[in-house]
Amino acid sequence: MSDNSVIGKRVPRSDAWAKATGSAQYADDLSLPGMLHGKLLRSSLPHARIREIDVSRARALPGVKAVITGADLPKVKYGNWRLVPATQDEYALAVGKVRFIGDEVAAVAAVDRETAEEALDLIRVEYEELPAAFDIDASMAQGAPVIHEETPGNISVTRNIAYGDVEAGLRQSDYVREDVFTMQAVSHAYLEPCSCLAQSDDQGRITLWTSTQTPYIVQCLLASVLGLRENEVRVIKPHVGGGFGGKMELRPWDVCAAFLARLTGKPVKFTMTRHEELATGRRRHPMRIWSRVGFRKDGTLVAKDFRVHLDGGGYNSMGPTAAFLVGNFGAMLYRYPAYRYEGFHVYTNNPPAGAMRGFGAPQALFAAESQMNMAALELGIDPIELRIANAMKTGDEIPDVATISSCAFRECLEEVARRSDWKRKRAELKDGKGVGIGCYSFITGGVFNWFDTQYPFSAAEVRAYSDGTVHLLTMASDIGQGSDTVLKQILAEELGISMKDIQITAADTAVTPKGDLGTWGSRVTLMAGNAVIEAARQIKEELFRMLSVRFNLNVIHDMECKDGMVRVKFRPDRGMKFGEAVAMAQKSRRGEPVVGRGTYTPRDMGLVTPTFSFGAQVAEVEVDRETGLTRVEKMFTVHDCGKVLNPMAVEGQVEGSIQMGLGYALCEELVMSSGRTLNASFLDYKTPGALDMPAGESVCIEVPEPRGPYGAKETGEGPVSPTAPAIADAVWHATGYRCKDLPITPEKVLRGIREIDRAARHAGDRDR
Amino acid sequence: MSDNSVIGKRVPRSDAWAKATGSAQYADDLSLPGMLHGKLLRSSLPHARIREIDVSRARALPGVKAVITGADLPKVKYGNWRLVPATQDEYALAVGKVRFIGDEVAAVAAVDRETAEEALDLIRVEYEELPAAFDIDASMAQGAPVIHEETPGNISVTRNIAYGDVEAGLRQSDYVREDVFTMQAVSHAYLEPCSCLAQSDDQGRITLWTSTQTPYIVQCLLASVLGLRENEVRVIKPHVGGGFGGKMELRPWDVCAAFLARLTGKPVKFTMTRHEELATGRRRHPMRIWSRVGFRKDGTLVAKDFRVHLDGGGYNSMGPTAAFLVGNFGAMLYRYPAYRYEGFHVYTNNPPAGAMRGFGAPQALFAAESQMNMAALELGIDPIELRIANAMKTGDEIPDVATISSCAFRECLEEVARRSDWKRKRAELKDGKGVGIGCYSFITGGVFNWFDTQYPFSAAEVRAYSDGTVHLLTMASDIGQGSDTVLKQILAEELGISMKDIQITAADTAVTPKGDLGTWGSRVTLMAGNAVIEAARQIKEELFRMLSVRFNLNVIHDMECKDGMVRVKFRPDRGMKFGEAVAMAQKSRRGEPVVGRGTYTPRDMGLVTPTFSFGAQVAEVEVDRETGLTRVEKMFTVHDCGKVLNPMAVEGQVEGSIQMGLGYALCEELVMSSGRTLNASFLDYKTPGALDMPAGESVCIEVPEPRGPYGAKETGEGPVSPTAPAIADAVWHATGYRCKDLPITPEKVLRGIREIDRAARHAGDRDR
Fold this sequence. Notes:
The structure is a homodimer.
Chain A: H1 16-21, E1 36-42, E2 48-54, H2 56-60, E3 64-69, E4 97-98, E5 104-110, H3 113-122, E6 124-129, H4 136-140, E7 155-163, H5 166-172, E8 175-183, E9 195-200, E10 206-210, H6 215-226, E11 233-236, H7 252-264, E12 268-271, H8 274-280, E13 287-295, E14 301-313, H9 319-330, E15 338-347, H10 361-379, H11 383-390, E16 397-398, E17 402-403, H12 409-420, H13 422-428, E18 433-443, E19 458-464, E20 470-474, H14 483-495, E21 502-506, H15 524-551, E22 559-562, E23 565-568, E24 571-577, H16 578-588, E25 594-600, E26 612-623, E27 630-640, H17 647-667, E28 672-673, E29 676-677, E30 695-700, H18 723-735, H19 746-767
Parallel strand pairs in A: 1-12, 10-11, 14-15, 20-21, 27-30
Antiparallel strand pairs in A: 1-5, 2-4, 2-6, 3-5, 7-15, 8-13, 9-10, 9-12, 13-14, 16-17, 18-26, 19-20, 19-25, 22-23, 23-24, 26-27, 28-29
Helix pairs in contact in A: 6-7, 9-10, 10-18, 14-15, 15-16, 17-18
């Protein structure tokens, strides 16, 4: 592997120049002749029946071209879980009821944004306010308001995982502990707010440029809502300024833009404001996790009972997946002979939660890893040693779910202990300083076909040209994570050419090859990467045949594409330039171009994912005992993402994950009051900045994953999860205060410290 | 054939709605962030050495981002005849010399058009004026100024065709006549002036949106000029407002836009003015044709000697093709046992001529058909009968050149005589009224690979979807002639679906399949159409296999795609919906999409074309003896274009050809004075308007062409040629004046009539 030319190298992102110079076009940068601007009227109430909507004054405003409400749109519900239609619970514009503050009620298209906004003020909605439920308990209580008539108890989805005898296991355990953890809602805070531009043709067919992670999903669902056939909708992904799971669904503005474009005959653009994004946008699920876990005296895990309630908000969104994944991650990292998971996705009158980076793992692992740390303490075992003793290994199986095809978790634990000087610091640090540990695992793409795609999970077409260049076409979606770059790297390596020889066309449902499920679950490198390899190998095969002809080679000769050449291995004199070989192959086909076509669909890999990443993180903090403020001074992360295809990209993902993890642990929270988001601006919603980033090290243990391209597995999401439990552990180490309720705010820390002090004083009093 | 569903039907153009509503985007409608506007400085002299160019003041003008001259560009000459590099004689910006008034000397990119124009005025060019040659004779004269140093005699190309013994034939003829004809320069007068927009990426790769008929040619030549690899240039054809042969080359603005985009890092747009188009743009070749033809007494053609001089202007452009085709068309329509052609492409200091609708045929046929009419008169044979006696027939061969695979010329002649009431009118009309005849033939695409493409001549990819829709991808270029529509018709017919089921992506060199040579020579319907059929048949084959499985069919069953169904012929109960069959085929491939890929390259069809169209036209005119003004009252056209795929489209082409033919015959002329175009505006350059269009009939004789899709052959260019000779003949019939020097202006007619009157008076005087 060490003689790779491009794979494993520090390759800068292909889109860096375009983004840095401003030539990259995001959806809101696009413009078409006669284009109209759209705005959405949103519900001001958390739960209400709509008695009447009067749009007449808005329609009469000069410059307004159309105003629509739920009554105008086809009555088709949508949602990402197409395989289970009962989960599809959203209308683009409210029909009959609104279910959260911000629920979309009407849409306006006007000649400019100002006019559209003015028109919103002229729409009169008569509501009948209904009782609302703003948390899990209120929503599940007897007599609670019913949010969707089809779901009387407000539990829209339940998920179960079970293997081994949990009850017996817990009975037989030497040590059992039971904890409850809660996690807040946080925002993706992507830099680019959602935006889309729709154009209709004379048949009412739609072209939609939209800021999305999942062009194919948007295509299919938009078509079904508009009553069009799938391919009468074309979705094109422009440059996207981050998604983190928040842009993987069909959204009301997509529907409204398309519908209004058909209605007016003009292109229509919608762009969300930051306030709309923070106040009403998708968010990470607030959860409550109850976990009971049993150990033998020596620290061996025996059984675990894991029960999770998810606050889904007003609609399902990606909740059904969250409800499964959180249970899956509850069983990860360690060998649980018996495991039981019950997950409940609960409707409330909060803004709906959706998918977000690490999907299910940050919550599950905050609970599970915190519990592991607390158990270690009580068992008198070092938390890293407790983990090593129970760590999953290559070849392990999660019954009915997955096999662990590669795992360097133990190595990660050992390495993070060494690099962070864990033993010494855990023993010695004091005076408000502490170290703590958190670990993680994440999926590398999903296997279970909840969207019910009819196409391969990923596809790539590679066109090789006699000029030495190559064109890669794929529906894989780069949303800023760098997948275009890594796919080009893979292709360059396979064909022995350079990055500059490759042009890429991606994420246009009309012209790129079917299919692709989009960017989520850290799936792109493995799945689209494997498709690219298959396509490239078809081309190599053809070029090798030409080489055989040209040099009259023995049938057993080994050949390679390398350094821009197609050549006999170890016989560089017997070679031709890549483009020359392509020209020869093309001649041999009497002019027909040389094209390779590859696809990837995970088969015989269980239900969840082809492979899991693993990793361990140690946080070193200082807690100010006067203010309760926690400052993370160092962060050590050791990551098992298989072979590192691009160290710059992996570092970027790990650093970005730490930044997001820091926010989740310490400061980020969408503060809610009766369904209203109180801090819907970046002034009030605090994300860590560059100056908040800790020092430390991020390293990878490179154990090649057999199912991954060049041995790679995921890197973009796993490292987002360990940060909160590691910091919580370090805060405990520094102060004695154990936080089970994210985020770990100064207020909570102060209160925790004071309680400990009070208890100590109390104990002192009693002892005295 | 009569049970076709779409083929042969009056199908409106697919782009009609977009064009009528203004949503169609032409190159000049496009805009990109930071875009600059370009303007060209053109030579004010017809022939001069450039001593010095001072751009410093222009560069200093605020808002100017770059000024370039020939010294800045790579010294790479280009031209369409890539197969013969010696013919490539153009630089985008003049190097050393200018060769015509309008030759491009410098280019400016500025923040807006006004600033760019202002900058042009600030560029100081110091010329050393050289003697110039403004016509063929001056240019070929001894001691004439040498226009290109590599071509001392100014004859850049000579072409010869010869078969049979012409000298013996003429000696043995009973009747020989010799004439000289001259034709003027005319403009394409397309509605959309040339325009392009170039964008560069960080590697200097170019995306160019340009108003072109030939994306592939522009791609290849632009790459070679810029020193890029072919596929480092991507050419996208937006909507195009007509080309007529005038947009089939790489042009200086394409090069300058791309170069300036690389230089400035900003997108750069150029759009020509109408003045630039008329004063300096490509035009139909002015020619002088000397023709000697011999007949037997009974009218049988024996031999023909055809010598042509083309005024090519300052550069070759498409002159090498013109010099061949005019000789080819001189031998068409009739059986010439012996034929000799010599063609001379002559450089002059006029603006360069290029390809234009009918390419070579309007000139060749004005001469040949006029001569036929004059010969008929002197032989005492009706001109239509003389033609019938010599008419080409299916199966005829033009030695070494082509076979006539279908020909209904005789039927066209008979039909046009009948419809126009020829016999009666030719015998009876008087008082300034007359009828005249002209005939024509045209190629249906070219065989000879002058561009030296490495790819198939045409290609189509057809993606069939389970939703019942189909996506056609092709590099074929609709420039307003309607090829997208006809290709969709062919595909709809093949797959038994409707036009609305089809989406098309065309003419983008990056994403549409290689290759296609562009839109010229009436090639698209036949070549791209055949590629579409091949692709569609692959899909049908796959669907038929599914039908066999589904209904457990006997291996001998016949099947069809028809009415949206895939079914057993004559057993409509055994069928499934098209989309259902596609879904089944896709399942049988475990999700891989159903795609057909077809190509077309003409083989075993000689050197010129797969097949020729034929036709005959009768013009009925009234000549005002006071003013000399000729008014065409009726026009009867009978056209052999094989099977008519879309009557609306064919009618449009024939009507459009008549309009252009009228202009060529009567009023259009780029009036030149010492190399300067005197009438470079639509006020002064007169094209016929709707009110000038004659009544009459245009009908088709539908004899299926075996090499054409559904039996079709060309229709877009042939009918442009007969109009001038038919009108000249009718004017003769009306007045006795025979015009051999286009256009037939009132001045010439008046002068002709007066000379005849004078001669008559003279004869009367003498007789008296």
